[in-house]
Design a protein that fits this description.
Strand 18 and strand 19 (452-459) form a beta hairpin. By secondary structure, the protein is of the alpha+beta class. 46% of the residues lie in helices and 26% in strands. The protein has helices spanning 11-34, 39-60, 99-104, 131-142, 171-189, 193-204, 209-236, 277-281, 294-297, 312-323, 337-364, 367-394, 432-436, 460-470, 476-479, 483-487; strands at residues 62-66, 70-76, 80-86, 92-97, 106-112, 123-130, 153-157, 240-244, 248-253, 258-264, 268-276, 284-291, 305-311, 396-399, 403-408, 412-419, 423-429, 439-446, 452-459. It is flat and about 75 Å long. Among the domains are: 11-142, PH-domain like, CATH 2.30.29; 163-236, no CATH class; 337-394. Helix 5 (171-189) crosses helix 7. Keywords: Membrane, Transmembrane, Transmembrane helix.
């Protein structure tokens, strides 16, 4: 395919449906207020007609082509813009199809070079193409090298039982609070905000304040759980992780909006086993890719996720199959007791800050704040001690055949399995307090993922030996003092 081609014309139908739906909600209350029902179809015709005309101009004056050397996208109308990507630098070709796109047989193809470039210069979007054409172009761009059939195959498939882990994330309470805020905001739009308050007071006015607050919290939690389950299901339903013959990993997922993300394995520098506190208590974890350019290839946070929250045994198996060697059973080096003391102190300081603030304000203003400060102290201080001890137990580092491992965290525990040949440098930091206790933090620098993975509060001597052995030669000039310097 080397000649110029157009995007799919069915985009006009998608635009008409979307804008018609968007015009109805604001038009209905206006029409009801003015008692002019004819305003609704007029608004739909005006909004949808203007949008379809604009989309027709975009479609009519946009074209693209894929040559052996470059993928080019051109728009010629009043202004002339042209974007192109060299084919030998293309690293991602991802497909997205919302419900309307699926109904019309379309998909959006987003192609990226995998480089951290600003202003979208490393990406090119063809929106939309026929689903079959988008799949064919994705294959053409990524699968330039044909590997033996044995190299491909499925690595993981969605299990509906994983949905039970959705309410255990921090998303659930956030969604519950957002649901309450949305209800009050919507009521305020229609001038019913005061009416909603009066309705709540009528229902809860006769109950003690503590009972009313408890009931509202239960309602928020229920709403958050329902929202978290729905969000998880929509994002990860029909999830499939496959290794393709072209040397790529492909993640396909989605219930209403389907998404397909492709990652070249030569960009992969390892994986991270992520265990949020709730999921960890339930024996679950997810697997994220540590790969070059992945953060800028896609703005969605889940673009780097290879496996959603699943049983920990499944996550460990998928991680091992992705990196090519077992990651479970690797003996991690524990950190000195001094690291435990640091975590306990930081946890207690974090908990004491709001407690002392409430007590100070209570002494100046009202005894109610003193009571709240005392209750918070009874709850927060033991919780801080438990979290500090858990954070210490989570510390560890080690190495296996081709990878080094670092683990840290409590609310979000992460175990990074990082390819040793992907480490391009080490940063050793030692604060005054760490130096007094013989501790240091060793940070492996890489061009993938977050760019830095730290071994926190390790024994200074043991950590230096670990870093030197993990990537031979990288720290050799700093591991010992040269003979000439020692004689001097």
């Amino acid at each position: 395919m080397t000649g110029w081609r157009r995007l799919d014309r069915r985009t006009l139908g998608v635009t008409a449906v979307v804008l018609s739906g968007a015009a109805v909600p604001p038009a209905v209350p206006v029409a009801a207020g003015l008692r002019a029902p004819w305003l609704v179809p007029v608004a739909v015709l005006l909004v949808a007609g203007a949008g379809v005309l604009a989309d027709f101009l975009r479609w009519r004056h946009t074209r693209f082509r894929c040559t052996p050397d470059r993928l080019e996208l051109e728009f010629r109308f009043v202004a002339h813009t042209r974007k192109s990507l060299p084919c030998d630098r293309i690293r991602t070709a991802d497909l997205t199809a919302g419900p309307l796109h699926r109904a019309f047989g379309l998909a959006v193809l987003t192609v990226g070079t995998g480089q951290h470039e600003s202003a979208g210069r490393g990406r090119l979007t063809l929106a939309p193409l026929a689903r079959a054409d988008a799949e064919a172009l994705r294959t053409e761009l990524l699968h330039r090298v044909t590997l033996p059939p044995a190299t491909g195959g499925p690595l993981a498939r969605f299990d509906p039982r994983w949905i039970r882990y959705a309410p255990l994330s921090f998303v659930a309470p956030a969604l519950g609070l957002a649901a309450f805020g949305t209800v009050f905001k919507a009521a305020d739009w229609f001038g019913a905000g005061s009416g909603l308050w009066h309705w709540l007071l009528a229902r809860f006015g006769g109950l003690p304040l503590a009972v009313s607050i408890l009931l509202l919290l239960v309602a928020a939690i229920v709403a958050g759980v329902v929202g978290a389950v729905g969000l998880f299901t929509e994002r990860w339903w029909n999830h499939r992780l496959e290794r393709e013959r072209g040397g790529t990993l492909r993640v396909r997922r989605g219930l209403f909006t389907t998404r397909s993300t492709t990652l070249e394995e030569r960009r992969l520098r390892g994986v991270e086993l992520v265990e949020p506190l709730g999921a960890r208590l339930a024996g679950a974890a997810r697997v994220d890719a540590i790969a070059t350019g992945i953060e800028h290839d896609d703005d969605r946070a889940e673009a780097k996720t290879l496996l959603p929250v699943a049983p920990r045994e499944t996550a460990l198996d998928v991680a091992a199959r992705v990196v090519g060697e077992p990651v479970d059973g690797v003996a991690l080096v524990p950190h000195p007791p001094a690291a435990r003391g640091r975590r306990l102190r930081w946890a207690l300081l974090t908990a004491l800050a709001p407690v002392l603030t409430l007590l100070a304000l209570g002494a100046l203003l009202t005894d109610v704040l003193l009571v709240l400060g005392g209750v918070l102290a009874v709850v927060a201080l033991p919780a801080a001690v438990l979290l500090g001890l858990d954070a210490y137990r989570g510390l560890g580092h080690g190495r296996t055949g081709r990878h080094l491992l670092t683990r840290a965290g409590t609310l979000r525990r992460g175990t990074a399995v990082l390819a040793r040949d992907g480490v391009i440098g080490w940063t050793v930091t030692q604060s005054v307090f760490q130096r007094r206790r013989g501790l240091a933090t060793f940070t492996a620098t890489t061009a993938a993922g977050s760019g830095a993975y730290s071994v926190r509060d390790a024994d200074a001597d043991e950590g230096l030996e670990f870093a030197t052995a993990a990537v031979p030669g990288l720290l050799a000039p700093f591991a010992s003092v040269p003979a000439e310097a020692s004689r001097a």
